[in-house]
Amino acid sequence: MTNTAEGLIGLLDLEQIELNIFRGRSPDESLQRVFGGQVAGQALVAAGRTTDGERPVHSLHAYFLRPGRPGVPIVYQVERVRDGRSFTTRRVVAVQQGRTIFNLTASFHLPEPGIEQQLPMPQVPTPEKLPTLTDELRENLGALPETLERMALRQPFDIRYVDRLRWSKDELEGVEPRSAVWMRAMGTLGDDPLIHTCALTYASDMMLLDAVRVPVEPLWGSRGFDIASLDHAMWFHRPFRADEWFLYEQESPIATGARGLARGQIFDREGKLLVSVMQEGLFRPREGSATEA
Fold it and tell me: What does the pLDDT read at residue 170?
């Protein structure tokens, strides 16, 4: 197992400090705030650890309320809202230094037979035909800045953009608000389905808002906006492994009023739709600040 996979598993391995209270570590990194996908993934672990494990999560709805501080532990308080015959509901509040920074509601469903249909996956190149994100950055930037080099070394996912990255505003003319990447964990994540679900939850927040920015500015380089995730929703349709390739297709139907809406679909290599995602983000011009909405 690679260090990055072990690091992701360790990040999702919460300490239980009371019956419904868990503590997660937050890496001390050179970031202004804790990565939102980390908090969402850890909160989902906390919720899942209070269930019997027989019902996989089928949906989550979450709000990012305050920026978390890197290096400071986060406490997750779980409320056992309901344990029904088919559905289990949990509410999680994430607290850091006495302040609520995030809340999540997750629903778990006992698998049962029903209607089977879906729209097809878009036709895109296979991941083997695409450069890794790190290779593409090195190709265009040469030696990576220290912050990007550290990020590349610790990156828990292999990321490959379906369309080559654009590096100047001249390349943006006529570009639609869409983006797509192939992803998989950088190593084996074991066989616990909850870990795979939480790892993909972590990954789902990594570039969903790219779709909002694509027509406006290059994704890598100087940024004209301060960006913050406001909320996040996911629907899990089928079992999956986050250490196998999945296609994360994203689009932004609208951006207005300093907010951009993005929606994503996650497919496996066979074209089965695994997960649907929605997120709204705050986009403030650089002269403002998005550290707290």
Answer: 80
